[in-house]
Amino acid sequence: xYVMIGQVLSNLIENAVKYxxxxxxxxxxxxxTDGEIQVEVTDRGPGLPPDAINRIFDPFYRVGGAGPxxxxxxxGLAVAKGLVEAHGGEFGRKTVGVGGRVSxxxxxxxxW
Length: 112
Fold this sequence. Notes:
2 helices; Heat Shock Protein 90; 26% helix
């Protein structure tokens, strides 16, 4: 279980690094409460276009952009969401402000 959640965190951090301009801050925040952990990864990349918000977790879906396309198959978020939900958790992603994204997970079923 810890290995799978580690993979989820790795996917979130890799996505933040991929889509954030060099020299821009990426914030990782974790909070442990009774019986659950909540983790947020916030970047200051381009954010999500409105049409991508409902599709971002679809396998093989990739967000286009003006610059060169980052490497990958478009599976990372679909796999991450599936792993979190398999542990009884929730996975979310939203655009914040003018640019940037917050990816969050909450896992109530793991014993930390």
